[in-house]
Amino acid sequence: MDAVTGSAISGAPEMVRLLTDEPAVTPEFLRYQVETATPVCAGLGEVRAELDRLRRLLVGAADQVGCLVVAVGVPPFDAPPALSAVADLPRYRELVDRFPTLLSSPGTCGCHVHVGMPSRELGVQVLSRIRPWLPQLLAVSANSPFALGRDTGWASWRHPVWSRWPTARPPEIWADTTHYDAAVRHLVDKGAAADPRGVYWHARLSPRYPTVEVRVADVGLSVDDAVLLAGLVRALVAIAVEEFREGRSAPAVPTARIAAALSAAARHGLGGPGIDVRSGEVVAQRQLFQDLLEHLRPGLDITGDTEEVERLASGLVLGGSGADRQRQMRAASATAGEFVVALAAATAASRAPELTVDGNDR
């Protein structure tokens, strides 16, 4: 982003060129976006170290290009016209030809967490069991309240923007990989996706890796946000595996109810009403987050992440989501430039300040 106007600028191709020896940094759909990917990590400590390293590389490259790196779900101010900003790669040109009207919206940035699976069959069973918890992951990660210089009123404006894509939907319950693959083929055959990679379910089997891929979250404003999300997803998958092995059925939650809960999570983040997908009742988002943490306790024991996730979750409850912190920064900034400088500082920070938490933080 431009440090004076706050506008997104097409600096990503030059940044990627400067980091040509770093395979974890790649171009994205639009020229003001850049993607990073960690290697396979054995624990959250490795995730943190790699994210710290990659963000430092991006900050250095951006400084050479003359812009700022900001981790937000959508650009908070102006961005180049989408058609002129699309990266010059064959796959992206095909998407422009197939879905030109979708480019009237700003580009979106998400955080995708992959968890390794020994088989695709187990992966399908995991998807069926984690789908009711996707709204809580979105509420926790919401980090896109601003667009075109205005507060959208949403904690995650990325979610409704991204949901314009025809396959950006909650996953269904599939009995096995045969049914899953048939659903993917149907969407491709009907033109809703160019290929299996273009089936953008909020959680899916990765078309490229032996993983379950959870795609519902906004990109994390800070490294802490991303590490927390990774810990939550890892524990959620661990519990789903245990539930399947114990013969427990996947919750028969209607997909439409999950979609409604996702909209509520995107609208309010952690600060308003949400929907309990099992009962259909309106429940405070913070209570739903506590319900998620309670559900995850056995999974966190399995993964060994209890202490780190509890620390980060406490910080989130006290300090707010990325959307909450963005609004605080905007209120404290006299200009667009001051705001994006604050966002860039949060993006580059390796660890949020330690918070003192008493027994009444819930």
User: What summary fits the major beta sheet?
Assistant: 3 strands, antiparallel
Q: Counting H and I runs of at least 4 residues, what is the number of helices?
A: 14
Q: How many individual β-strands?
A: 9
Count of structural domains:
1
Low-confidence runs of at least 5 consecutive residues = 352-362
* End-to-end CA span: 37 Å
**CATH architecture annotation:** 2-Layer Sandwich
Helix content: 40-55%
Q: Give the rounded overall mean pLDDT.
A: 92
Order of helices and strands: HEEHHHEHHEEHHEEHHEEHHHH
Mind sketching the topology for me?
Layout: H1 12-18, E1 25-27, E2 34-36, H2 44-65, H3 82-85, H4 90-98, E3 110-116, H5 120-130, H6 134-141, E4 146-147, E5 150-151, H7 158-162, H8 177-189, E6 203-205, E7 211-218, H9 223-245, H10 255-268, E8 273-275, E9 282-284, H11 285-303, H12 306-319, H13 322-331, H14 336-348
Antiparallel strand pairs: 1-2, 3-7, 4-5, 6-7, 8-9
Helix pairs in contact: 1-2, 2-9, 5-9, 6-10, 6-11, 9-11, 9-12, 11-12
Protein name: Putative glutamate--cysteine ligase 2
EC number: 6.3.2.2
Keywords: ATP-binding, Ligase, Nucleotide-binding
